[in-house]
Design a protein that fits this description.
Elements (H helix, E strand, L loop, with lengths): L4 H39 L3 H49 L2 H6 L2 H8 L1 H34 L1 H8 L2 H38 L1 H6 L3 H53 L5 H42 L24 E8 L8 E8 L4 E6 L5 H8 L7 E6 L2 E2 L5 H7 E5 L9 H5 L8 H10 L3 H5 L18 H15 L3 E5 L7 H14 L4 E5 L11 E6 L2 E6 L1 H7 L2 H8 L3
Parallel strand pairs: 3-8, 3-9, 6-7, 7-8
Antiparallel strand pairs: 1-2, 1-4, 4-5, 9-10
Helix pairs in contact: 1-2, 1-5, 1-10, 2-5, 4-5, 4-7, 5-6, 5-10, 7-9, 7-10, 9-10, 14-16, 18-19
């Protein structure tokens, strides 16, 4: 709210004007009764009554206008705050490392950006201004009651200890209940997102009955959490109402006795009773606000937890530019690198590796040998626990993030396609590229023929996550995207595994040209892909056990030769 403090100040002034004009009514009524009725009854003089009525009309108009202006003003403030919060949370989530998103499910992320923000919106839209108005009412009316008759004012204030006990009890009980509600909402959203995201697997393995049982259990937890909140409200709201009604009855009895005995004017008693009702009405409103506040506070705790997450891959404090090169290709060096995804389990133990600029290196090895881990470290999706990864001699932790992403592009087995057309997904590699450049990139990897066979060619919608394209078609689009990005270093992590043999051969022919002057790291189980490599590294438990040109390794009869033999080549 800090950026909106000036606007909030103006809105507060409007609330004060609205509050004062709204509270003028009971006082004017008391004046009309005590000062206007006697001359009207005795002499037929209605001037005081007319004046009071005119003042009531003016007060009502001022209250209505100030309320109208305030609502429009506060709506801009509320929308601005929520817009900033959503944008800030979304931008922060994109900066967080893949490790965060691997442990923090997408459903919980969606819950933070939707239902939790909606809880804040409910409070800001309707409850926050009620808090200010009703707090002003309590303060101003308390003073007015003491001024009109100090005895009646003290009777009204005697209700406060009882109200404080009720509010204290509700505060203690409702906090955990609302936090449980937010957690239950997030669990329901997580289950929905996971089920619908894997709907093909769900239907293929007849998972629907089991998912229905799980969803029923989660929905039951949410219903139980909501029921707990409602039970608390069923005690809290009637409790506040009972105290306020009891206090009003006491004031009516005491004030009536004083009025009968001539110690209190009837008009003043009428004003006191009207003010007392308005005095305790805010208590009810404040109790409802507290209900909204507890829900919003629980939601804000969840949002704050996300905003307080720090990226595992922190941006450099003082970015260092990469050296300017005449052509493409950059050298890569892993110096004494140690890495593990979980504490106590090392994937790469003190690995040393140097890849000269322009060299194409293939990484081979069994599953879990560390191939993809090396690729992720080179792309700086993770930082090593010890040692350094350098690009042209510059530590990746010092390289400007934009320069790093422009220099290194990764194509994986499951490249993500965004909703939109084929052309829009290709141009993702270089925003602002012309249609001719997009088409040229597709031609370079041999994807143009496949794309032209689609119903609308480059304008064909790919569907959600590329669902309208086959796995091989999605991969060719991803290759085109990477080529359009024109990186210095290209990492292919099982990038051709989704292609059929003819498409793979076409891509390999294109890669021979594309990788001629680039640095490339290729991870592949199909050894046919290794044919384009200048150098092969065979990994075992994070260590390099063979290193050399494919032909030389084949001639030595080592592990690479054994892998070739097993593959039938």
């Amino acid at each position: 709210m800090r950026p909106y403090r000036r606007s909030i100040g103006v809105a507060s002034l409007l609330l004060i004007v609205q509050n004062v004009s709204g509270l003028a009514g009971p006082y004017l009524i008391s004046v009309g009764i005590d000062a206007g009725l006697p001359p009207l009854i005795d002499r037929g003089d209605s001037s005081v009554i007319v004046t009071v009525a005119a003042a009531l009309v003016v007060a009502t108009v001022v209250e209505s206008l100030s309320r109208h202006v305030y609502l429009r003003f506060s709506a801009r403030i509320t929308n601005g705050i929520l817009f900033d919060l959503r944008r800030r949370a979304f931008a922060h989530l994109q900066r967080l490392s893949p490790a965060f998103h691997e442990r923090y499910t997408s459903g919980r992320v969606i819950s933070r950006l939707t239902s939790d923000v909606d809880s804040l919106a409910d409070m800001l839209d309707g409850s926050l201004d009620d808090l200010v108005i009703q707090s002003l009412n309590v303060l101003v009316i308390g003073v007015v009651l003491l001024v009109l008759d100090w005895r009646m004012g003290l009777l009204a204030l005697l209700a406060f200890p009882f109200l404080w006990l009720i509010i204290r009890w509700f505060r203690k009980e409702s906090g955990p209940a609302y936090r449980r509600t937010r957690e239950a909402v997030a669990s329901v959203i997580v289950h929905i997102v996971e089920t619908l995201g894997g709907i093909r697997a769900v239907q293929a393995f007849r998972r629907e009955p089991r998912n229905n049982v799980l969803f029923g259990r989660l929905a039951g937890d949410l219903a139980a959490a909501d029921a707990k909140v409602l039970r608390l409200m069923a005690v809290f709201v009637p409790g506040v109402f009972g105290v306020s009604t009891g206090a009003t009855a006491v004031i009516l009895a005491a004030g009536g006795w004083l009025a009968v005995h001539g110690q209190l004017q009837v008009g003043v008693l009428a004003a006191i009773l009207l003010y007392v009702r308005r005095f305790f009405d805010p208590m009810m409103q404040l109790s409802m606000f507290y209900n909204s506040l507890q829900s919003a506070t629980a939601a804000l705790e969840k949002i704050s937890g996300v905003l307080e997450e720090e990226p595992d891959v922190a941006p450099p404090a003082r970015p260092v530019p990469l050296p300017v090169r005449a052509g493409r290709g950059r050298s890569i060096a892993l110096e004494n690198v140690t890495f593990g995804y979980r504490e106590g389990r090392t994937i790469l133990p003190e690995l040393d590796l140097t890849i000269p600029a322009g060299q194409t290196v293939a990484l081979l090895g069994a599953t879990g040998a560390g191939k993809t881990t090396i690729a992720r470290l080179i792309g700086r999706f993770y930082d090593p626990l010890a040692g350094h990864v350098r690009l042209d001699g510059v530590d990746l932790t010092d390289v400007d993030e934009d320069a790093l992403r422009a220099a290194i592009v990764t194509v994986t087995q499951e490249n993500f396609l965004f909703g939109g057309t084929v052309a829009e997904n290709i141009v993702f590699g270089r925003p602002g590229a012309s249609p001719a450049q997009v088409e040229a990139a597709a031609v370079q990897v041999g994807a143009d023929r496949m794309i032209r066979e689609l119903p609308l060619g480059f304008a064909t919608p790919v569907g959600q996550r590329g669902s309208r394209l086959s796995a091989g078609q999605r991969q060719l689009v991803a290759f085109s995207r990477a080529v359009l990005a024109d990186p210095d270093v290209l990492i292919l992590d099982e990038a051709t595994s989704s292609l059929d043999i003819p498409s793979e051969r076409a891509v390999q022919r294109a890669l021979r040209t594309l990788l001629a002057d680039r640095t490339a790291v290729i991870i592949a189980h199909r050894l046919s892909t290794v044919e384009i490599a200048d150098r092969v590294l065979v990994l075992d438990a994070g260590r390099i056990v063979e290193d050399g040109p494919p032909a030389e390794l084949l001639a030595t009869g080592g592990r690479y030769a054994a892998l070739r033999e097993l593959s039938g080549r």
